[in-house]
Fold this protein.
Amino acid sequence: MTKKLLIFLMAVGIALVFIATGLQAGTEVADTFEVRTKEYKSPKKSPATLSHKKHAEDYGISCGDCHHDKDGKALADLKMGDNVQRCVECHTKLTKSKEDRKNIMVLENAMHGNCIDYHKEVNIKAGDPKGRKGPAPTSCTKCHPKKKK
């Protein structure tokens, strides 16, 4: 083999190692972040804060309990650090219409439905038949603090 070919193959090999490492690493997930989207110009309430660590480790919730595919089916094999789409990539409507206030394609409806419905299930299992009171918050102010002026 010529010296140039050997150097070229070594460079390709090193590049492949870096690419494979990057693919394996996935996406770094912040422990705590604001559940909001920059697409909303002026939200009426402060954004909710979510802790991945608390939900995954303390409450034992799997990634698929929140993240789903285009058919609403849980992504059962998802794990921390995997690449996932943001809600707004599929739920693209940013405003509600009076005719269809519960449209799941509206980002706010999708996010609220995902969190609040799950929280109500937790509260029902904890003994509240309506799911409003219990360990998981369901009221606006429990997740959205008063907006600072």
Notes: The chain has a mean pLDDT of 79. The longest strand covers residues 32-35. The chain has one domain: 27-143.
